[in-house]
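pipeline/complex-builder :: batch 7 item 3
reading input block
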Amino acid sequence: MTRTFQGRFTPWLFAAPGLVWLVVFNLWPAFNTVVLAFTNAKPLGGGHFTGLANLGRALNDDQLATALLNSVIYMLVCLPVLTLLPLLLAVLVEKKLPGITFFRTTFYTPVVASAVVVALIWEWLLEDRGLINGFAQWLGVIAEPLPFLTDRWLLLLSAISLTIWKGMGYYMVIYLSALGNVRRELHEAAAVDGAGAVRRFRSITVPGVRNTMLLVSVLISVSALRVFSELYVLSNGTGGPGGQDMSVVMLIQMYSRGFTGHLGYASMLSLVLFVVTVGPMLLLLRLNRKGA
Amino acid sequence: MRGFTGENVLRYALLLLVLVLTVGPFAWMLSTSLKGSGEDIFTEIPAFLPQQPTLNNYARVADSIPVWSYIANSLIVAAMAVTGNAVGATLAGYALARLRFRGMKLLLGLTLGTLILPGEVTIISQYVTVRGMGLADTLLGVALPGAIAMLNVLLMRTAFAAIPDEMDEAAIIDGADAWQRFVRIGLPNVKGMLSVVVIFSFIGAWDDFLWPLIVLTNPEKYTLTVGLQYLSGAFSSDPRLIAAGTMIAFLPIAVVFGVAQRFFFRGVEEGAIKG
């Protein structure tokens, strides 16, 4: 038997490809983002150190302020809805009824579909001549089509609804995994004592998955702050009327391209994104530790 | 079921309601994509089923935009992502879980640390790196950064760590080296997690939008999602065509997930997937 992989460098041979990717595509870009944020790097050259110029520009950037406002609204709406609805859905699909695998799989389908696909489907439903406006007009609820895709606030609301619709299955599966650990005997004992479904949900299910709810709310906050595809596709890349429906990531993408691009400023915006995402994450982790 | 049929009827009613809300929009898009040009799709309440079913819209999409080359481009990127992750993440995961070496803790800590950085934060400097390698506007440039995802390294490490130590110890006494232990003991015991990594590498690469949008400038190199967005601008006057293009992007993923869902939900029930 040949013993080629016996030496002390063997573990490094196994780890080598992963290590290269860790350094080149994870650690270096993280470091370089900070460096680039203080330069005037352009898509076509440039790259001189410009001190705090990008920071000053960011602090006076009305578009960035609007994008951050949109992000906060996005988060405030998504957080309660996506923390609670998927939990109810998980409770619904938890019981192993005949055909339940079909329902679970189908409910997860919007998650595996591309955000572009989902946004195009909803664009067709929400446009002036689309099904939702048509149905509402037929019912007589509205006389004129509602401008879901062209009004500054309705467009934001449409994108939020889309994020919620697409995200339900994802968080449902996380909750489903956690519900497996909630002890069944507790439910049965409570049922015998005459506790109704609502009561059991509040006093047994919710406390049992409390940590998972916290984890889910962190994931929701961070992904709400990172939103891109929904707003980009629903607004056809324009960011809505007057660019008022941009997210921070849309601004980053906008500055990454073409003759008007500015990679240095885009990197400063990336730092802003990091600061706002790391905030809720640390806060919630701390809450979690205190509660435990 | 102990006679709780009333409860089960309610459950099925709710399940069907959610099913309609989930499948409805997809079904509506599919139906629109099959409607003939003579059908009025803009009345207040259009017919749910196509009155003049036709595949003509699919043919017209393929005539107007290079949808086949978009599909080929997406497949190339997805194949590179799947291969890279299946090989690279598996090897690295094995090293972190089962081999002892100096610096292992540091390596593990750094790998874990990357998870707090959302990908969007480093996307600009990622682009600068890829451009510096001369890979801007290439499919290799799209695939390369995600070809070994740190999350997948950690998932594979978890799977390898669950193998009992005694199995390795017995093999060491038999004189098996690290590679032989990896092939004979490691790999056969992580098939479940490996399939999860493969499935989600494929889906992630196929669905990705922002990164290829930044890297690619030449429309001939567009992946399907970027091409689709481009299509929606070009054909906004005819939703039938957009619907057909959307279904071309969606159906392969639906089939892949439909076939692979067993592995996925088995993993969920074993508690392997925690987000």
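note: Chain B has a mean pLDDT of 87.
queue -> next item
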